[in-house]
Amino acid sequence: MLDYISHLWHVFWLRPDHWAVLSIVPVTAFVTWIHVWMALRMVFYPIHFIGFHIGKLPFGWQGIVPRKAGRISGIITDNTLKKIGSLSEFLEAMDPNEMADIIGTQINADLEYLIDEVMMDRNAVLWENLPYSIKRRIYEHAHQQLPEVLHALVIDLTDHVEELVDMKKMIVHQMENDRRLMVSMFLKVGQKEIDFIWHISALIGCGFGLIQMLIWFVVPWHWTVPFWAAIWGLLTNWIAIWMVFNPLHPHYVRYPQFFRRTKHHGFPWLVPIVPKIGQFNIQGAFIKRQEEVSDVFAKVVTEELITLKTIMTEMMYGDHKEKTRQMVKRHINQITDTPLVRTTLQLSLGPTEYARLKTDLIDRSIEITMVPVSDPAFNASRAQKIFTMFRDRIRNLTPYEFQNLLRPAFKEDEWILILLGGVTGFVAGVIHLFVAFL
């Protein structure tokens, strides 16, 4: 047997193209590694379009994720986020009573300044000449009423958040206005899968290189070099992406194990162990990490996407802001329409100016409410309250539902990435043909 193998090797070595044939495997592996890296970069970068337009026809490129941020985020919201929970659940978990106390404490400190500012805008001469005793009574009345009014308002907004905020529109609007956030979210959630695709591509390329080398012995035609390189380019990108999400469900295979990977994943990567029967789970690389990804995704969503600030901003300034204003007006009027305040201000300002004053007060109340709501520390404290709930619900998603956290990024225009592999493979094959075979 050894003599036969030695004879084959000797015959092969006498071929004039033996170095060219041997180069097929490393060249195929390297080219595959490079074009898969290029394809992965093109999924996310550049953030903004680079190129030019002739009329309405674009010539250039923008990353698939930032280019289709609205559509992709809409798919993720419909397929995953809405199944995890509703906005009312998230707000309820943030503890509305505590929110009302914190917001109330901060607003209460600036309440007199707020009243002065609104009154000075409306009638500066009158307010400056109004006896301090009357001003003091208005201040004290507002301070007494504010905690109860604000508490009722926060509870009311929480109860009606589904009517005031469309989760899908809120997230789509946020992603379209900050496409870098969209890319950052995908990279935080799927960086390990992206690295897996990149590195496994070289191994797949080696396998295809061996096949191509064997084919060359049977069909040593020069045109087959770029032809097969293009085929391997197409297949490598498709297989690499497929392996991230498939199979959906675990398939355990038993095998004899003689080595184990080191925990720190540094050199040496493998260490010998006492032989035993090991078990390997054949499952999509992303699906395998559901528990780990749940922590990362929950942190990203609760700290950057579905935050108290984003919900309140959409509520106060979004499509249903008029409904919110009516709700705020109903509660603020409990302060301005009491006999003491109404009589004092109507006599001082007149009915028309008094009505305008109430409108101004509502506008300023909304603005001043957004100040504590926008505070990073306040948002972080609310995020902590819903993190565990969010994480646990992601862990309980089915594999099909879970894959939709990352799958839309690759599914959108996936054919472009696969075609890119074919084109890159063909170009590399032509270069390889002229350098090594001709």
TrEMBL record:
**UniProt entry keywords in alphabetical sequence:** Membrane, Transmembrane, Transmembrane helix
List membrane-spanning regions. 20-40, 196-219, 225-245, 415-437
Q: Which residues form the signal peptide?
A: none
Q: Which domain of life is it from?
A: Bacteria
Coiled coil located at which positions? none
Query: What name appears for this protein in its UniProt entry?
Result: DUF445 domain-containing protein
Species of origin reads: Acinetobacter apis
